[in-house]
Amino acid sequence: MNQAGHIFAKDTRHLRWEIAISLALVIAYVVVVPAEWTQPLEGPTQMVRIQELRVLAGLLSVLMGVSWWILITRLVQSESLVGDRQWWITKPYEWSELLGSKLLFLAAFIGLPIVIAKAVTLAEAGFTPFAHLPGLGYSLIAIVAFLILPLLAIAAVTSTFGRATLTTLGVFVAFIALEALASVFVTGGFSVDWSEWIVLALLLAALCSGIGLQYACRKTWTARVILAAGLVLVCVATAVAGSSALVAMTYRQSGSPLQLSYNPDSKGSSFTQWAGRRLIGVSVPIHVSGIAAGTAVDLNAVQVTAEAADGRRWTSNWVPIWGARYRAEGDLSVAAPLPLQFDRSFFAAEQKKPVTLHLRFAVTELRAGTPYSVAMPKQDFTVPGFGICTPVDAGALGDYTDLSCRNALRQPSVTFVTVEWSNDPCGSVGSATSAPVAGEGWAGTMERNQANFGVNGVEEVGIQLSNNQQHLEGQQGDVPRHLCPGSPITFTPYSLSGRKEYDVTFENYQMPDMPPGYHFGD
């Protein structure tokens, strides 16, 4: 047996209890998670049980992370790389053999169990694991890059478990602090999606360089500097991912007929909330028009430049917009108010005064595909390209009130879902004679490089269907409408058509007043 094999066998014997605990947690997680799909979604008691199982699965996922952290730290520090008085130096070990044995150990007792667990959960959820091998590979790469290699690097540049623990906490706090500062002062929380590849490449380069140098030369401080520099570069790359230059590269200016304008028929704009210590959130009603037939638009982000009559001027960062997706065939009169952010000092000086707003919108244009329609079944049903859906009977009364859908490894592509609700219980006289109520909702994402980060290979797909509640006379609160078996459900997939920037100007926009009880000293 070669040297790496001897070290691998020694580590396996030495860490057998840590290995056993880690594998036991993975097995327990794989046993608990599929209960959500294998058990019928019927009745409040069953729904409560599923929620309890979700909490248990969340606890097991945390414990798995802790077990991997302990296992990796003890594995690396069994041949400590810090200092010059280690026993293993006298063997002597070849650094490449030593590193190779550690990587083989991690692949055997962390990487392989993760892949197997993902495959098992996929199979339990009704998917074919072999059909999703590329996704499994990308998901494993993400886990290696953002979890396993960082823990390996920290263990390699620290001498004891206590120091590794403190360093891990310090790195976590530093990263959160840098990201928070970048979000406030640089990006505003928005980033172009392809920047994730740059972050991944920088992270892998820094981690592999630091770990390789430490094993090859045991130059601890040099390795620490490389790892710290990598952390800073990752934070910088994340920060500039929402910069005007990258947004301009991704979203090109367009002359297409999409129109975004201030809605004068609305009740007007209003103060919404504090958006940080320096910013004020304001809700501005807009009107959307000019969307071509068979297409949709998704307002991803907005940058506002406000000009006051006295020459005062302020420009915001790019700020993400959530839930602003519109279809040509939809009711554009119910467009959600546009969230804008203003500097506190600018807002305080220009309250109740007219200003000019120059708005830059980052917009994703979507093209509708071929709809897929199905009569509401009483069991799981597969929607091509979308996933597997299960009818939900929250009251165990034989009436379905929702859909629970899942997909393999990631969210599906953006999909528009339409249903027909019944006001009356299914099978009653009223359900056969009353007119159906239309319901609709969006699901999925255009971020196709999104990976499922974790042991669970199944991603829950959220669908918020409209008109799912009704108010009955003499009854307190709203009651759910019903999805009756045989009623039509349509899934319309949308694909990426382009990413464009739209610039509009709102003349004489009057800044709203703050509601009573708020003041700038808060």
Give a description of the structure:
By secondary structure, this protein is an alpha+beta fold. It has three domains: 3-189, no CATH class; 251-367 and 499-510, Immunoglobulin-like (Sandwich); 372-496. 41% of the residues lie in helices and 25% in strands. The protein contains twelve helices and 21 strands. It has helices spanning 3-14, 16-32, 35-38, 43-77, 95-124, 133-156, 161-187, 195-217, 220-240, 244-250, 344-350, 429-433; strands at 252-253, 259-262, 270-274, 279-284, 286-289, 295-308, 313-315, 319-320, 325-327, 338-343, 354-368, 372-375, 381-383, 387-392, 402-408, 415-421, 437-443, 458-461, 469-471, 478-480, 488-510. The strands form five sheets. Strands 1, 6, 7, 8, 9, 11, 12, 16, 17 and 21 form a ten-stranded mixed β-sheet that branches. The chain has a four-stranded antiparallel β-sheet with strand order 13-14-15-18. A hairpin with a 4-residue loop joins strand 6 and strand 7. Helix 2 (16-32) packs parallel to helix 5 (95-124) and helix 7 (161-187) packs parallel to helix 9. The model has no long low-confidence stretch (mean pLDDT 82).
